[in-house]
Design goal:
This protein is of the alpha/beta class. The chain is built from nine helices and five strands; from the N terminus they run E-H-E-H-H-H-H-E-E-H-H-H-E-H. It has a five-stranded parallel beta sheet with strand order 2-3-1-4-5, sandwiched between helices. The chain is globular, with a radius of gyration of 18 Å.
Length: 207
């Protein structure tokens, strides 16, 4: 098994890259998807969040209202810390369980980890042991803002604020073994993904 960590900021196109790696044969462990599963009604993480913040974080129909949670935690360091204390232990336990299911195989495993690098620039890569490499999807700030506004309906000021609250491009690139530039069009991105995949499979052939 060869494990690659994949990360990138909002609007960078990381999810597109992850899907492209899967199409090329990778096994994907998507931290965001795991979190959504852990936050489903009836799960311990969901119950802990409702206990912390009350019925206001439950949408009509009973699912978690992620927008309400974001409003509570976005500009409040204490509440953001509380969210991490609820979600992260369960998240990392589930990631480890899924990694264990693939251990001993010849799979290329991509760990999609948006928070691999924190807002303070620190990396949690060591937490995942023997990673073969870290791939960072990068795009300039103006491009990512345009994508968030046009593609995901963000207000421009909100998009800029959210980007500013994440790790900087410099901090992400500092931990990268391979950078996929996604500041251009889709055809350029496909070429860059092909190059990254060639590198990843070369790592696999060495093991």
């Amino acid at each position: 098994m060869v494990e690659i960590a994949l990360t990138g900021g909002m609007g960078s196109g990381k999810s597109t890259v992850a899907a492209a790696f899967v199409a090329r044969g990778a096994e994907l462990i998507d931290a965001d998807r795991v979190v959504r599963e852990l936050q489903e009604p009836g799960q311990p993480v969901f119950e802990a969040m409702v206990e912390r913040w009350g019925a206001g974080v439950v949408a009509e129909g009973g699912a978690l209202d992620r927008g309400a949670v974001a409003e509570i935690t976005f500009n409040d360091a204490d509440e953001l810390k509380a969210l991490g204390e609820i979600v992260h232990p369960a998240l990392y336990n589930e990631i480890e369980r899924r990694r264990g299911l693939l251990a001993g195989s010849d799979a290329v495993v991509v760990l999609d980890l948006p928070l691999l690098v924190g807002a303070d620039g620190t990396s949690i890569a060591d937490q995942f042991g023997d990673l073969a490499g870290i791939v960072v999807v990068d795009a300039d700030t103006e491009t990512t803002v345009e994508r968030l506004v046009a593609g995901r309906g963000f207000d421009e000021s909100d998009a800029r604020a959210r980007i500013a609250n994440q790790a900087s491009r410099v901090a992400r690139i500092a931990v990268a073994d391979w950078v996929i530039d996604n500041s251009g069009d889709l055809s350029a991105l496909e070429r860059n993904i092909d190059s990254a995949w060639d590198w990843i499979t070369s790592l696999a052939s060495r093991r």
